[in-house]
Amino acid sequence: MLRVFIFLWLLTPTLHAAGLDADRQLVNSLLAISQSRMPEALSTVDTLTKQHPNFRLAQLVKGDLLLARAQPLHTLGNTGSSRNAELEQLRDEARQRVRAATDSPPDDKIPVYLLNLDDSYRHTLVVDASRSRLYVYENRAGLPFRVADFYVTIGKAGAGKQKEGDNRTPIGIYTISGFKTPRELTDFYGSGAFTLSYPNEWDTRLGRNGHGIWIHGSPGNTYSRSPRASEGCVVLANDDLTRLGQYVEIGKTPVVIAEQVEWVAYDALDARRSDLAAAIDQWRQDWESRDSARLLGHYSPSFRTGSQDLRAFGASKSKVNASKSWIKVELSKVSLMLYPERPDFALVSFEQNYQSSNLSDRTVKRQFWSRENGRWKIIHETSL
Hints:
The protein is built from 10 helices and 19 strands. By secondary structure, it is α+β, with helices and mostly antiparallel strands.
């Protein structure tokens, strides 16, 4: 088993993510083992454990190296004892770290969710719960490019949060809403916490509850936690959380959390982007027409905004449109994001400049669009 473990690491010439120095040192140690350079292997992992004495996985590898001087190794953590829960957690962490190195998403593919990002979004964070990985994408003229990734821990019960206390990490699209410094927190949260806007409007509509879902650091005595160990938060090593901070804008940076990220080629997004963008532009044009029937055709029967359902919303729109002699609607800062786990569901955000014969107004809006019977329709709307 140890040979397989080493071989998997050997398959990867480089680690893609910036800032994975601890991982790199661990890889270098295993490379030295595979080439029978045992003193160098031990020296490398020894340096790593001195830098991060609380890195339990590295300590386990070091222990195996020392044990290998006396006997053959059959598995990672060659204790020879019965199944140990803590040891299994370390093996799970090793598997996920190995997977990140040997099965990294190709550079020519991106998460399907990032259809179009307005230039005001500098970076987007994407969490793949199945891989225990957080990916950082830089926005370059609307196209995302991966610039970093980090090992993370998610909820003990996995992803798909529904209610308070279920120990699950939510699936959805959120915003980093704030940052809590170590002074505001206990040591449990390590070097700080980025707060997330969970529950969002869609979560609330579906009856999902809970609070305090954060991206935070690790306790001082723990370099990293096992893949599933939190109460629903996304947890990083403290130095990784610090590195992540350079990509975060409070109140701005989107965070996509998926059970398993769907990766697609850049050009594969074109058709999906164009299809949704065309539906949005047609909605805008039909609003300008003041034809209420045409406008309301863009809304789902289950549409809601605030306390209004489609019937109440439609009556209000018809009354307002009748009072206008002309309407002009311009959309700017438009971002289009497909929702995780729902291929025909999207979050659309934009700045709306509304002008009419008797009113001018500028509003930031978030809309959830759903494809129903082959046509995109608005199912939920919030004015910010």
